[in-house]
Amino acid sequence: MGVRKKNRAEAMKEERKSIAIAKLNNCPTSPRKMRLVADMIRGMEVEKALAVLKFSKKEASIRMEKLLLSAISNWEQKNPEERPEDLIVREVKVDGGRMLKRIQPAPQGRAHRIRKRSNHVTMIVDKINQQ
Question: Of 18, 35, 78, 96, which is most buried with the most CB atoms under 10 A?
Fold first, then answer.
């Protein structure tokens, strides 16, 4: 490995120490509904985001709240000496997951295809001053 590549790898490793990542795969909610919830909390402080998710009426917010708590816990594992008050939800990505294809009977011998969508959510939590 070259010196520049090694230095860049070391810098990236140091940069990743301050962030925590949590993933939720194959969540049985459509990506469109989950993105509405993700847009509500993107860029917020962690405590405020938890309050927003707790009092939201959307079903996707329950899963997003659990994911945020997991990301906070991952950050605490990496940084045991620091306190999680000054954390921010830096990035939330919602991607389409697998799709279950089902058939619904229709009149006159026809059938309609039903697509039951799922999604993958990736959440990154970081300190406020390092954004």
Answer: 35
> What is the fold of 17-130?
Ribosomal Protein L22; Chain A (3.90.470)
Report the DSSP pairing between strands 87-105 and 20-27.
unpaired
Give the model's confidence band at 98: pLDDT under 50 very low, under 70 low, under 90 confident, else very high. very high
Structure tokens that stand for 76 in this block = 């605490």
Handedness of CA 103, 106, 112, 117 (dihedral sign): negative
Measure the CA–CA gap between 7 and 1, rounded to whole angstroms. Answer: 10
* 35-86 per-position pLDDT tens digit: 999 999 999 999 999 999 999 999 999 999 999 999 999 999 988 888 778 8
Contact yes or no for 105/111 (Cβ under 8 A): yes
Domain boundaries, the chain: 17-130
Q: How many CB atoms lie within 10 A of CB 21?
A: 15
